[in-house]
Structure formats: C-alpha cells, structure tokens
User: What shape does this take?
Amino acid sequence: MALRIGDTVPDFTAETTEGPISFHEWIGDSWAVLFSHPKDFTPVCTTELGEASRLKPEFDRRGVKIVGLSVDPADSHRRWAADIEETQGQALNFPVIADSDRKVSDMYDMIHPNASDTFTVRSVFIIGPDKKVKATLTYPASAGRNFDEILRLVDSLQLTSQYSVATPVNWKPGEDCIIVPAVTDEQAKEKFPGGWKALKPYLRIVPQPGK
Ligand code: BEZ
Assistant: This one.
C-alpha cells in the first residue's frame, strides 16, 4: 500500500553506515528526508550522494535530517562511500540505510516491480516532526533527482506549516506567497496586517511572511 501525504510513516529499526537507527526516534523533533537509491556502486546514485552531502549544511539549517537507503549491506555502502568521496570530491556525511532484506523498501513501496524486481526506484519522502508524510517524489532509476528542488519543497512546506500561506508556481524563497483559501478576509486582516493584493477574491498575494 503506497504511503500518501498525511499518513504516518512506518517506524523501523535498521543498520546504517552510521550504526543502527530506530527511525521515529532518529527523526525526533526534526523534519526528515528519506530517499532511496536503486543499488550501490551505480553511477547516478554516486552523483546524488555526493550532492546531498554537499547540501547537508542547507538541510541542517532548516532542521532537516537526511537519510539515504540502498538494498545492499552496510559494509558495501562503506566501500562505496570511498568512491563517492574520490569521484565527487565530497565525503558522505549522513547515514545510508542497509536494506538488503528490503524490509524498509517494501514498507515504503520503493520497489515498483514493473520497473524492476530488484532495484528500488528513486523515492523521496519528506517527513514532518509529527512523523507524517508532507510530500513525496518518485523518479525512475535513470533520472537523478534535483536536490535544489527538494530544498525548495522543504522551504515551501515549512512556510505552510508556520504561516497560513501556500506558494505559487515556480516560487523561490523570498518571493510572494498566496493566502490559503481556508483563511477568510477577516482572519487575513489579523494574520497579515501589512495587507495583501487580491487579484481575485480567491487569489490573494502577500509578501513571504517571516522574511
Ligand atoms: C544509477 O544509479 O546510475 C542507475 C541505477 C540503476 C539503473 C540505472 C542507473
């Protein structure tokens, strides 16, 4: 059964490159991004893990823990980490789950048999401190993910969780936002004392709150 936005993510214990973790406890009060890799020693994944490690300070700044997953044992992940550092010029600096029995991949529906019986697809789960799914992305094995987009999505989700705003098409941090439809104009006057621009009664633009 696929995990959907709003579902509580399954808890599990697993071995990782940084020792065993109990997932919900590991998340704690942080946000988390869990992302799967089809297999160790594969080219696209090697580039992704280098880039995710390079961006780790950006995830840290947002209070987000990142964790990868691949269906190989931890000693294989550690040997692969040496290649990642050598080829990407960046050491792996976050845990990668060793899911050789595919326990977690199955729980999170990361293996799509019509794509491959053995490899995971490239799943991304953005998880809130309440352990609920806030967003998911699914890419095929052949397409590397855009980690700048994952950060942008985290920024949008965190804004929405803090303020009653949504983010428009192609939004980037610092740009104008949209007052969510559930907020009446009366309520908006209190929440957004600086006012807003109403292009339509349902399309109310405000500067990004908290900027
Ligand atoms: C890769 O990570 O490069 C990859 C993995 C499986 C299939 C295709 C590409």
